Amino acid sequence: MCYDQSMTDDLNLEGAYALKTPQDAKRLYAAWADTYDDDFSDAQGYLIPREVVRVFAGAGGHGPILDVGAGTGLVGEGLAAVGIGPIDALDLSEDMLRVAKGKGVYRNFFAADVTEPLGLTGYRGIVSAGTFTLGHVGPEGILPLLEIAEKGCLFVMSVNAQHYKSAGFEALFAKLDPQIVDLTFEDVRIYSDKADLSHRYDIARLVQFTKT
Fold first, then answer.
1. Closest among 77, 70, 72, 74 to 98, alpha carbons compared
2. What is the per-residue pLDDT across 118-174, written as a single tens digit (0 to 9) for each?
3. What is the mean pLDDT of residues 29-42?
4. What residue ranges define each of the domains in the chain, with the CATH number in brackets?
5. CA distance linking residue 204 with residue 128, whole number of Å
6. Over 80: is that where the pLDDT of 33 sits?
7. What is d(CA 119, CA 19) in angstroms, rounded to the nearest whole number?
8. Which residues pair with 25 in a beta bridge?
9. What pLDDT score does 140 carry?
10. Who contacts 138 (Cβ-Cβ below 8 Å, separation ≥6)?
11. In angstroms, rounded to a whole number, what is the distance separating the alpha carbons of residues 11 and 31?
12. pLDDT class for 21, splitting at 50, 70, 90?
């Protein structure tokens, strides 16, 4: 598959944060999928997948789990490593899911837009790392997930702190009572000291709650 040079030049954090449409995201991640783990996750010391797994496991989370914005499968690898499953992967990018499939940790794969009705059922856990962030998905992605979650489903998702209030996440969560209970937050670093200085100290808010 061939990509123009301008797309290749955008394979970085700034390019990802500048996305405007689902089509933009599909093009970027199609070009980035095969090198994402090395060029982004390892190179920037990407911590959020590990943090989401830590909080989900610590809260007693279990499957079946839907990994929203699964990408190349970083959260799925972490869950599988601590014996939590089964896990399904959902992502807008078929190319990222292709890479995730090669890791052998997921049961099913769904290429879909999380802001649209998903037509899925049966999830006792929903996790997400890096999807609710600048240039990606806003609070409009939460309600379709509540629709497919079973009663008692545990949610653990990261929201970029810069995105949290301005994009309307704070307002949405304030309105969801009594659909959710046990809403808690934990702010953590997105990247380690390996990251570029411009984003080294970026913060994500880990949002945890249970569907009633």
1. 72
2. 999 999 999 999 999 765 689 999 999 999 999 999 999 999 998 899 999 999 999
3. 78
4. 5-211 (3.40.50.150)
5. 12
6. no
7. 26
8. none
9. 94
10. 132, 163, 167, 168, 169
11. 8
12. low
Residue 41 has phi, psi (to 5 degrees) of -60, -50
> Concatenated DSSP letters for 79-141?
HHHTT---EEEEES-HHHHHHHHTTT--SEEEE--TTS------EEEEEEEEEESTTS--GGG
- Amino acid of residue 172: L
Question: Could you tell me the sign of the dihedral formed by the alpha carbons of 138, 142, 148, 153, in that order?
Answer: positive
Written as one string, the DSSP assignment of 14-80 is: HHHHT--SHHHHHHHHHHHGGGHIIIIIIHHTB-HHHHHHHHHHHTT--SSEEEET-TTTHHHHHHH
The string of pLDDT tens digits covering residues 43-53 is 999 999 999 99
Q: How many CB atoms lie within 10 A of CB 98?
A: 16
Mean pLDDT, residues 40-44: 88
- The encoded tokens of residue 26 equal 């599909």
Q: How far apart are CA 32 and CA 8, in angstroms?
A: 8
Alpha carbons within 13 A on the beta-carbon side of 193? 0
Q: Could you tell me which of 115, 116, 92 has the C-alpha nearest to residue 32?
A: 92
Give exposure, 2-26, as e/b (b: 16+ Cβ within 10 Å): eeeeeeeebbbbebbbebeeeebbb
Which amino acid is present at 16?
A
